[in-house]
Amino acid sequence: MEQCSFSDESRFSVHPDNRRIFIWRDRGSRNNPAFVHERVRFGGGGALVYGTISIDGRTDLYIIRVSPLTVCRYRDEIPRPIVDTYAAEIGDDFTLMDDNCRPHRANLVEDFLFEEGIVRMEWLACSPDMNPIEPV
């Protein structure tokens, strides 16, 4: 029987900046300090939290420094130490399901998973509702 591991990551920022702040002010109050909001550029730092779940359990949550998460960093900090170790515990029936984001589908990561013998579940892009870890 095949053992599927569902993975996901979430980004947490110290000062999230979603740029959805609307300011209404009276005429003549343009430079009033009461209407000026200090903003930290680029979120002020944060972390990426990664984890997987399967029918037999879950991995620990792994906290990864956010600034910039390149494909090489992704491969070295997530699939290599986390997924590869978890796959070795499960055995030959291990299948990985991720969320199709670009670092997950990069050729460097694809090649690494192929060399390690990790099978990835194929599924449609933009379908996070199919992954049961999304609401967790």
Describe the structure.
With 136 residues, this protein is α/β, with parallel strands linked by helices. It contains 4 helices and 6 strands, in the order ββββααβααβ. Strand 2 and strand 3 form a beta hairpin. Helix 1 runs parallel beside helix 2. It starts with a strand and ends in a 16-residue tail after the last strand. The model has no long low-confidence stretch (mean pLDDT 79).
Characteristics of this structure?
single chain; 4 helices; elongated; 136 residues; alpha/beta; six-stranded mixed β-sheet; 6 strands; 24% helix
Shape descriptor: elongated
Classify the secondary structure makeup into a structural class: alpha/beta
Low-confidence stretches: none
Please tally the helical runs, counting DSSP H or I stretches of 4 or more residues: 4
Major sheet: 6 strands, mixed
End-to-end Cα distance, whole Å, is 25 Å
Radius of gyration computed on alpha carbons: 20 Å
Number of strands: 6
Strand fraction equals: 15-25%
Mean pLDDT: 79
Proportion of helical residues: 10-25%
Report the order of strands and helices: EEEEHHEHHE
InterPro entries: RNaseH_sf
Organism: Trichonephila clavipes
Protein name: Transposable element Tcb2 transposase
GO molecular function, one term: nucleic acid binding
